[in-house]
Amino acid sequence: MCGRFNLRxxxxxxxxxxxxxxxxxxxxxxxxxxxxxxxxxVLVVRAxxxxxxxxxVNWGLVPGWAKEPSIxxxxxxxxxxxxxxxxxxxxxxxxxxxxxxxSGFYEWQKMTGSRKQPxxxxxxxxxxxxxxxxWEHWETNDGSVLxxxxxxxxxxxxxxxxxxxxxxxxxxxPDFPAWLDPQHEDHDQLQGLLQPCPDETLVxxxxxxxxxxxxxxxxxxxRPADESPxxxxxxxx
Length: 237
Known about the structure:
Elements: E1 5-7, H1 11-18, H2 24-28, E2 33-36, E3 41-46, E4 53-59, E5 77-79, H3 90-95, E6 97-102, E7 104-110, E8 116-122, E9 129-139, E10 145-155, E11 166-168, H4 176-180, H5 187-192, E12 203-206
Parallel strand pairs: 4-10, 5-10
Antiparallel strand pairs: 1-2, 1-7, 3-4, 6-9, 7-8, 8-12, 9-10, 10-11
């Protein structure tokens, strides 16, 4: 799964990587965030009227047919293997696909007893990641509007598997146009994008348990663990 991530990349670099122009109010709100958790606002890139756009939506997808928004707390991730079929996700997969920008994400490796070791997973050069996502538009009876999203996951690649059996789907820029185009109807091709990234894409660092608490934010979330459970501290090469 993907239950926590960070977005530390400057807005100017995000705009260049995703080929978008941020509205000034949105750009000024994009301060570095080190511990993004479900139910919080997250940045997504999606198709706009004339070009792709950035928007803030709540993390936890609320289907259009939902009677109330609390269902979103159970919809932070959508499995790539079934996203096109599940009633909660299939409409968004067909019409409301998006990208969720990130600089890195966190997973917790089960250790002896109840102990879990947090890991920070990111590109070796800390370049942005583009998680495959879906978003939805939900309205209350009084006309209030809520936009929400979910991150699509897939089985872990061989390097990620020792930490966790699932990982977010990470798309590359050549795949962005097809994924974001709401008129793109080759769903078999889109389904084919929902694969684990190559092993060499990511590196992982064992980090301090300070990140465990969602209320904790700031650079200390990336503080190295005092002692690596893997021995030499290197999992990915």
